[in-house]
Amino acid sequence: MSTITVSPAFAPTRSSRTARTSSRSAVRLTRRGRVVVLMASLALVLMAGFFLGSVAVGTNEAGQTPATEIVMVEPGQSLWSIASDLTDSGDVRTTMREIERLNALDTVALSAGQKLRVPVSDD
Q1: Are 110 and 79 in contact (CB under 8 A)?
Q2: What is the rounded distance in angstroms from the CA atom of residue 36 to the CA atom of residue 42?
Q3: Which of 18, 51, 85, 98 is the most buried (most CB within 10 A)?
Q4: Residues 117, 69: Cα–Cα separation, whole Å
Q5: Percent over 70 (pLDDT), the chain
Q6: CA-based angle 65:70:76, to the nearest 5?
Q7: DSSP secondary structure string for all residues of 28-77
Q8: How sure is the predictor about 54, in pLDDT bands with cuts at 50, 70 and 90?
Q9: ∠ CA(12), CA(17), CA(19), 5° rounding?
Q10: Phi-psi region of 118 (alpha: psi -120 to 50; beta: other; left: phi over 0)
């Protein structure tokens, strides 16, 4: 029978320089490469934000519309006087805010002949 033995003819030795370079990563990025990676990451986060933020939170059911009536503003009337006529007890300012919201008013200034949608008082 025959046997074969293999012995290394060359055994490399590690020097201190080889040990330092082996601890570094094999991939090195230049300044432009780092900027490209940063921009790609930001674009990915931005797209994820758009997709996750565009989820609708509405329902298929219609909301309840408050009971309202139309009132024509007479000369000398203000929003406060109209709201105080409608408010039996409670804060007149709350009724004023409700009238402003129902009519999409920017200011409390009214003109004679203007039609306002006001909440129906609970008599």
Answers
A1: yes
A2: 10
A3: 98
A4: 6
A5: 80
A6: 135
A7: ---HHHHHHHHHHHHHHHHHHHHHHHT-----SSPPPPPPEEEEEPPTT-
A8: confident
A9: 70
A10: beta
